[in-house]
Amino acid sequence: MFGRNSVSGTYGYFKSKALCKGDFLDNVNEQPGSASVVQAVASSLHAIGYSGAGFQTASVRAVPLIRDDGVVVAPSSETAADGSYPLARFLYVYVNKVPNKPLPKLTQEFIRLVLSEEGQAIVAKDGYVPLPQSIIRQTLRQLDISP
């Protein structure tokens, strides 16, 4: 069994969601990164592990999960985006915004780039799931940034 080390956000998320806030067994081999987890699983007979979807390779396969309602859901861009895959999560960019004041122009441009078609294409190229347009529009509106 392979997993991330305890300083990883992936470790914390998996512990909270998949282990229901329980703890890992002592024999889970902690790896320094998701790529290391995938490489270890790929090179070990009968291994299992968890990592971010962006690190999947042809040497491993992602496992479908059974939701609480009994529905089996395969991991995919669609099931991650619509929230039906039980272990899908958003990754956030945080900004320090002063209440009732606009974001600095450089910060606005960065957020605009990240949420643009070009920025979301980079997200997809790196193996992650682009945000749904509804979330992009909502975020721009909340931050008072024009598209």
Give keywords.
D-Maltodextrin-Binding Protein, domain 2, 147 residues, two-stranded antiparallel ribbon, mainly alpha, 6 helices
The figure for the number of domains is 2
Helix-residue proportion:
25-40%
Provide the residue-averaged pLDDT.
92
Report strand %: 5-15%
Assembly state (oligomeric): single chain
Assign the CATH architecture of the largest domain.
3-Layer(aba) Sandwich
Polypeptide structure, described:
This protein has 147 residues and is mainly alpha-helical. The protein folds into 2 domains: 2-62, 3-Layer(aba) Sandwich (D-Maltodextrin-Binding Protein, domain 2), CATH 3.40.190; 91-147, Periplasmic binding protein-like II (D-Maltodextrin-Binding Protein, domain 2). Helix content is 36%, strand content 7%. It contains 6 helices and 4 strands. The chain has a two-stranded parallel ribbon with strand order 1-2. Helix 4 crosses helix 5 (117-125). The radius of gyration is 18 Å and the shape is elongated. The model has no long low-confidence stretch (mean pLDDT 92).
Summarize the structure.
It contains six helices and four strands; from the N terminus they run βαβαββαααα.
Break the fold down into its secondary structure elements and pairings.
Blueprint: E1 2-4, H1 9-17, E2 29-31, H2 34-42, E3 65-66, E4 72-73, H3 77-81, H4 105-115, H5 117-125, H6 133-142
Parallel strand pairs: 1-2
Antiparallel strand pairs: 3-4
